[in-house]
Amino acid sequence: MKAKVAASVAAVAVLSALALTAGCTDGAADRADGTEAKDRRDAGRVLSTDQLRHAELGPREVPGFQIERASIGTAGHGKPRTDSAPCRPLVALLGSRPQPAPAASVVNTFAKAGDGHHFDGLLGTIRVSAYDRDGAAATLKQLRLAAAACADGFGMTTGEGEPQTFKAVQTLQPPSLGDEAVAYRLANAAEKAPSLVTVVRTGSNLSLFFATSLSDPEGVEIPRELVEAQVGKIEKLANAERVPTAPPSPSTLVAPEGGEAGDSVE
Questions:
Q1: 184 DSSP β-pair partners
Q2: Which residues contact 148 (CB under 8 A, 6 or more apart)?
Q3: Quick check: 177 and 231 in contact, CB under 8 A?
Q4: CA count, 13 A, side-chain hemisphere, 128
Q5: Could you give the 3-state DSSP secondary structure of residue 98?
């Protein structure tokens, strides 16, 4: 299983020149006022990498999924480029150096497992990032504008120097979670498998989910239970009166079958 997931992670990096995404849910006036007040509070608390570790999902925390810690580069290598200026905010988040740059990030991979933990083709990454000041909100604002401008698609060069073309960016209904959320489907001009992206903002933190499916392109999804679990953990951490300063003890993580929890990180 671990070898298959490792191969799947490589497939994510190659298949995806992912496509991170941008913006859409606006709440009512009272919700907006509360969000602004919360954002001001969050601006004074920027979570570190060690603190974000407390919000990571455990290997078997969400039934039906295998989750493994990964390196930052797993969510996108280097600095991808595009000649289309309006699409640059979308492209920038596909590499390991998004702009504006987060203060800290942690990355995990996930794979959906069927009976007997048999890999069924759905795989992806989860990147949770903490931003200074208004970086998280600014990121979604920039993405929202870029997604609208690039609905007919865009071309880019990945961080590895490979050309990639998306023929369409389709806005999807985002989950009603966090302070605001966005969801998109990117149609790859060369691959049958589309790329799905969901981004949820919780105060000054972003939870990004990318998914594709190697065996069932039409059935690709970003599982709601996975999003709810991850956003719930970052929300609890961000709202805690006292946030741990040290990383969680390995003993608090449940090791997956046949392996150890908490792989090394770059």
A1: 171, 197
A2: none
A3: yes
A4: 29
A5: coil
Model pTM score? 0.78
CB distance 164 to 42 below 8 Å? no
Q: 112-158: per-residue pLDDT in tens? A: 876 655 566 888 999 999 999 999 999 888 888 888 899 999 999 88
**Whether 154 contacts 20, CB under 8 Å:** no
**Three-state secondary structure of 175-202:** CCCCCEEEEEEEEECCCCCCEEEEEEEE
Residues with Cβ < 8 Å from 23, sequence gap 6 or more?
Answer: 140, 141, 143, 144, 147, 180, 182
Residue 81 gets which letter from DSSP?
B
Domains located in the chain, CATH noted: 2-216+228-239 (3.40.1000)
Neighbour count for residue 175 (Cβ, 10 Å): 18
Q: Is the peptide bond before 100 cis (omega within 30 degrees of 0)?
A: yes
Q: What are all long-range contacts of 248-253, with beta carbons under 8 Å and residues at least 24 apart?
A: 248/53, 248/54, 253/58, 253/59
Query: How many other C-beta atoms are found inside a 10 Å radius of the C-beta of residue 16?
Result: 25
Whether 247 has a pLDDT exceeding 60, the answer reads: yes
